[in-house]
Write a structure and sequence with these properties.
The chain is mainly alpha-helical. The protein is built from nine helices and no strands. It starts with a helix and ends with a helix.
Amino acid sequence: MNEIEVGKLLAMAITLDPKMPEPDEAGFMRRLWTATLHDVPVELAQRALVEYYRSDRYAQTRETISPADIVQWSHARRRPSESERTGLNSATRREAPRPELDPQRIHDGVDRVHAALGVRRAIASGEDPELAVEIAQGEAAARREFLSRACPWCRAQAGRPCTDGRGRELTRTPAHPSRLDAAQVAAREDTAGSSRA
């Protein structure tokens, strides 16, 4: 909604509600409502206003409408219903077959995301794009390796990130050094075992 539409909406509210404050001459109230209702279509806002003043809530409390009431009402109306999402109503709905869970596919997707983020970081810091791709792929593989083991320091289970003493995920390092060391030792042992075979 723009300021003109909000002005009309406020005029409707003032007409319906004698306790509704008049807009100030400087336009602060209209600008504030416009900022709050910027993504709400005018038709939905008008319907929300009328519905609010016809509601049991208003009849019981006599509270003046706020922009938040309009936003909540319009967002609730924009959410698709179950039948809109599935194309079926609850009486005719059949459960759609769920795709099989493929952990390898999930791991590969996570690795691709981390690699893409690594490339973005490396390029932003001025690295050569081809080198950035290699570094990012190596970081993604290393991340998968250390996350496949429990952390001996914080006791984070395999697949879970390391945490500090307050239970918050680490932000400065990917994992505790002891977990990274354990992953490197295991990787060396795997490489040595495969070269012997």
